[in-house]
Amino acid sequence: MIAIPRLTAPRFGAIRPGALIAGRHVALVGSALLFVAALAGVAALLPSPKGAYVKMPLSAVFRRAPPGWRESLIAASGPLSVTEDVVRLSERPFGPLAGVTWRAAVGARPGSGPLPPAPIAGLYAPGPGGPLPIIAPDGRTPFDGYRRPFAAHGRPKIAIVIGGLGLNARATRQAIETLPPEVTLSFAPYAEGLQGWIDMARAAGHEVLLETPMEPVDYPDNDPGPYTLMTDASPPEMVKKLEWVLSRATGYFGLSNYLGSKFLNNDAAYASFASAAASRGLGFIDDGAAALKTYGGLPRASAERVVDDTLNQTAIDQQLLALEAGAMQRGQALGAGFAYPITLEKVARWASGLNDRGFQLAPASALATRR
Questions:
Q1: Residue 342: its pLDDT value, please?
Q2: CA-to-CA distance for 63 and 213, rounded, in angstroms?
Q3: With bands split at pLDDT 50, 70 and 90, how would you rate the model's confidence at 18?
Q4: Cα–Cα separations (whole angstroms), residue 162 to 19, 94, 95
Q5: Contact status, residue 187 vs residue 210, Cβ threshold 8 Å
Q6: Cβ contacts of residue 112 below 8 Å, gap of 6+?
Q7: Which residues are paired to 160 by β-bridges?
Q8: Is 72 left (phi over 0), alpha (psi -120 to 50) or beta?
Q9: Would you give the end-to-end CA distance of the chain in angstroms?
């Protein structure tokens, strides 16, 4: 199992030099300090008695994971043990961010500052489980209010969405802090501390999508969770589940799909979802599963390739180069990836040289069209 410790750690006050008395007391003080340090080390390895971890069965997810995912984790994190039944996740990735000023990552470019804090007045209303996105009386939409501003420079545009964020604290922080702000980040609705993660991403300049669990063809063997949108659900039942997802946080400009190979291929189910999303002024960016779907008034874009379907460096490099080739041919290209450590590292390195190669990195919203 992967054990992700809580981010809170013991704090130790500074030791003043005058406190260490010369002579025979030095050995005594030194021994005491070593004992305290040893206790702190042991405590850091133990879970909190108040329930520092939650357990989530992910065997179905592991069956869909691309080849090489274990090796990727081991390479990034050192030796670890992974079972196919349970991954232990930090209960709360970090505390509330109230009063905390986000400091941009080192090397951030001028003009890549934070996006406006969410929620934005007029773009939300109270719902049964939390705030829900709405279209403002003056016609402003959450899609327009929460997207990242973008000005095209005439070069071929490439956008990429990194998904699966919010469940792994280390990977989520790596994505927020090391990827260029033009990279769109997509968060899982089941993540603890979801609003805090979204606030952090927007403070670093990233626009945000919220993932919507949708029924796959191999359900229930592959189960996206209790709020999965089901193909055979009535429209009111589907809307009720969707509103739970939407009420988990605010600040996202649109939705993305989590699985959904069966749901997105059902015209009636997709129409109900698209109608509900459009009525709330949201966009929909999918991983390619809904590439042929249209819905009037709903800002849409589909990824033409998933860059880490095969999880090794050479394969990811080839997929990123294929995105460049697609952008050269059509003027723009959209890719998708998951928050694997190797994916984050490769995308960050690749994106840093895009401008020199004659491309413009764009947020995914810039590639969306109403269709």
A1: 97
A2: 17
A3: very low
A4: 51, 21, 24
A5: yes
A6: 104, 180, 181, 205
A7: 335
A8: alpha
A9: 44
Lowest mean pLDDT among 32-41, 123-132, 253-262, 299-308: 32-41
| 124 — pLDDT class (breaks 50, 70, 90) | very high
d(CA 270, CA 53): 36
| pTM for the model | 0.73
Query: Residue 117: is the preceding peptide bond cis (ω within 30°)?
Result: no
Q: Which of 5-19, 189-203, 317-331, 343-357 has the lowest mean pLDDT?
A: 5-19
Residue corresponding to tokens 């968060």: 187
Residue 330 has pLDDT above 60, yes or no: yes
d(CA 66, CA 343): 12
pLDDT digits (tens, 9 = 90+) for 263-289: 999 999 999 999 999 999 999 999 999
